[in-house]
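<given_protein>
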Amino acid sequence: MKHFSRIFAAAAVSLATAIPAYAETTLTVHYPMPGFFKNVMDTISKKFMEENPDIKIQFASPSATYEEGIQTILRQAGTDEMPDITFIGLNRLRMLNERDVAVDLGPLVKKEGNMAELGFSDTILKLAQVNGKQVGLAFATSNPIMYYNADLVKAAGGDPDNPPKTWDEVIALGGKIKALGNGVDGIDFRWQGDDWMFSALLFGAGGKMLNEDESKVAFNGPEGEKAVEILERMVKEGGMPVFTKPAGEQAFAAGKVGFEFQTTGALVNTIKNVGDKFTLRTAKIPLIDPVNGRLPTGGNAVVILTKDTAKQEAAWKFAKFAAGPYGASVVVPGTGYVPNNELAAKSSDYLGDFYKKNPLFQAGLSQMPLMVPWYAFPGTNGVKVTQTIVDNLSRIVDQSASPKEALTDAASDVEGMLPTQ
C-alpha cells in the first residue's frame, strides 16, 4: 500500500506542476436603481463569468438613485469599502473626475485599438468623457418620452393613433381627460428626484443650464421661463396633481392618468405594471422649440475605480462586455433604454429586428438624434444644485410660488453654489 501511495503522491505532484494554478480575480461591482437594473446586472454578470471563468463578479449593495450612488462612492473613495467598478449617472462623471476617483480609461481605449469594431463610435465614447478624458463607458442611455393611456385619450375625444405633438395639445387634452372625472388625472410629469426632466423642458426650448464659461446661471433666461410656464400650465390647465414619484407611477399603471412623461428606461416596468388594464402607447416628447430643441441623455456609465493593476485588467474586460453589444442587447429589452452600442443596434445577432417587433420601444430610438449630454454642474456642490432646482420646481407644482419667482430663487441660490472663477 505504501508503494502505491508513493506512486499516487508522485503523480499528483507531477500533475500539479504540469497544470498552472487556477487564479481567480474577484471584482466588486456597485450599481444604482435595482428596480431597473437588478435583472439586467444578474444576466450580464452570469454570461460574463461563463465566458471568463477566471473572473468572479460580486455585487455591493445597490443605491436607490443616481444621487445616492455618487454620494456612496465619494464617501467610500480610498477606503476598503470602495468597489472595483461602479455605474454612475452620466451627469455625475464630472464629480468623480474632479476628485480623481475614477481610472482614466484613455490608455486602455488606445491599447484596445479600433473601438468602433466593438460598436463604440467616437460619439458613443464622448458620452462618458469629461473634458476629453475617458472617465467611463456609456452603459445605459435614455431620453424622455411620452407614455399615454390610449383608452383615456379616446374617451376624452383624442385620437390614440395621432397623439399630441406640442405642449399646447398635451395640456389641452390632459385637461379634457381630467374632466372625465372618476378620480382620473390628466398628466404626470416626472419632475422629482433630479434636474433631468427640467432639462427636457429647458433643452427642448433651446436653453442651457449655465453660460459658456460656466460662471453664471443661464437657465433663468427666456428658455427657462418658457419651461417653467409649461410646468405650471400642466398643473393649472392639464390636470397634473402633486404626485410623488411612486404615486405617479402607480396611478398611471392603474389607468388613472392620461399622460406620463419620464425616461424610456422605465418602459419595461411600465409594460409589466400596466398589464392588460388599458392600451399603452408611447410617442415622442414635445419640444418647446421644434427647431433648436434638444433632449438630455439620461443613464449611466461603467467606471473603473480599482487601482490594482491585475484587477484593472479584469475590470476593463467587464466594462467592455457590459457596455458592449451583448450588454446592450440585455439592457434595451430588459429596461427600455436606447442602445448605446452601434453594433448592438444594427446587428440581427443583437437588436436588429427588436424594434420592428416591439413598437413601444421606437419612441426613444427615434429621438436619439436629439440627444445631448445631461449637464454636469462644476464644483463640489453638484448634488446640492440639483436639489435646489427640484425644491423650486416643487413650489411651482404645489402652487406656492409663481414660475418666475421659483426660477429667480433657484437661479440666485445656484449661482451662489458655483465655483469662484
In short: Residues 98 and 199 are 23 Å apart (CA to CA). The domain at 143-294+376-414 is CATH 3.40.190.10 (D-Maltodextrin-Binding Protein; domain 2).
